[in-house]
């Protein structure tokens, strides 16, 4: 799951409370809002967290199967309402962002640290499975994803797989982006490429990647086969705060990446990978 520009004033969410820390979490189609702690007193509840950029508070009351309250942040106060539903599910994360027919998935952006132009068509990525993650240093769900991808890449990079991070930042300033992304790279010990793709706003990311139906959620992760075809697109990110949902995602990710990596490759590629 992830962060993104809200599509409307109404967003489907899943709220779950637990009896041990974290006390609960909130998930929506863009992703979870990370670890929350709180209290329940009689029919009232309060869950709060600080994601590094803004404090968040969910509070309200439960009456029977109905919930009403408000979401409070540093910038706004919004009403929330819901009905208890043990079978509630979020939209399929693989269905929210699609590839446009007839538009090739291609890009060239500068390396965030060296400024050297990098393209998906470069020899480094040829005949390899490539994970392209659309991210930003400001995005907490992107950081949760990096915490998974970084060690996974180090353990699997000799199998013919690469990862490219496309970073959209608050300023269209390479120096600003470099400073922010150096911190991210160091913190998560990232060994894969990170490119500076420009400013994060309502229009530029979608214009910069025209093969996608839209870019509005961070992270959005594209899985590219060895032959250059896009296998699937995952929108958002469910992080470790979601417990069993995160564990299920990690298992699914590992299984599906094994399948992509094991797809047939040319004899030349096999020789190169076995060196």
Automatic annotation (TrEMBL):
Pfam families: AhpC-TSA. GO terms for molecular function: antioxidant activity; oxidoreductase activity. It comes from the Bacteria. SUPFAM superfamilies: Thioredoxin-like (SSF52833). Residues 96-255 form the Thioredoxin domain. CDD domains: TlpA_like_family (cd02966). Residues 1-23 are annotated as: Disordered. This is Thioredoxin domain-containing protein. It comes from Spirosoma telluris.
């Amino acid at each position: 799951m992830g962060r993104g520009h809200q599509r409307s004033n109404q967003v489907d969410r899943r709220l779950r409370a637990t009896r041990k820390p974290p006390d609960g979490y909130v998930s929506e189609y863009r992703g979870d809002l990370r670890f929350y702690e709180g209290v329940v007193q009689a029919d009232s509840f309060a869950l709060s967290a600080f994601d590094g950029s803004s404090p968040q508070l969910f509070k309200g009351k439960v009456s029977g199967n109905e919930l009403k309250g408000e979401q409070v942040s540093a910038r706004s106060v919004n009403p929330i309402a819901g009905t208890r539903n043990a079978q509630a599910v979020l939209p399929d994360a693989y269905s929210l962002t699609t590839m446009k027919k007839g538009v090739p998935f291609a890009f060239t952006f500068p390396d965030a640290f060296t400024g050297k132009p990098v393209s998906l068509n470069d020899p480094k990525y040829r005949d390899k499975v490539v994970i392209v993650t659309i991210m930003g240093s400001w995005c907490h769900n992107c950081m949760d994803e990096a915490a998974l991808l970084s060690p996974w890449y180090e353990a699997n990079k000799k199998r013919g797989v690469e990862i490219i991070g496309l970073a959209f930042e608050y300023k269209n300033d390479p120096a600003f982006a470099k400073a922010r992304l150096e911190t991210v790279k160091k913190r998560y010990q990232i060994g894969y490429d990170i490119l500076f793709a420009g400013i994060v706003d309502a229009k530029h990311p979608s214009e910069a990647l025209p093969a996608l139906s839209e870019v509005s959620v961070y992270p959005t992760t594209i899985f590219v086969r060895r032959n250059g075809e896009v296998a699937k697109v995952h929108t958002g990110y469910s992080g470790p705060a979601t417990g069993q949902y995160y564990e299920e995602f990690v298992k699914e990710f590992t299984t599906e990446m094994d399948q992509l990596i094991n797809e047939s490759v040319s004899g030349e590629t096999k020789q190169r990978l076995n060196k």
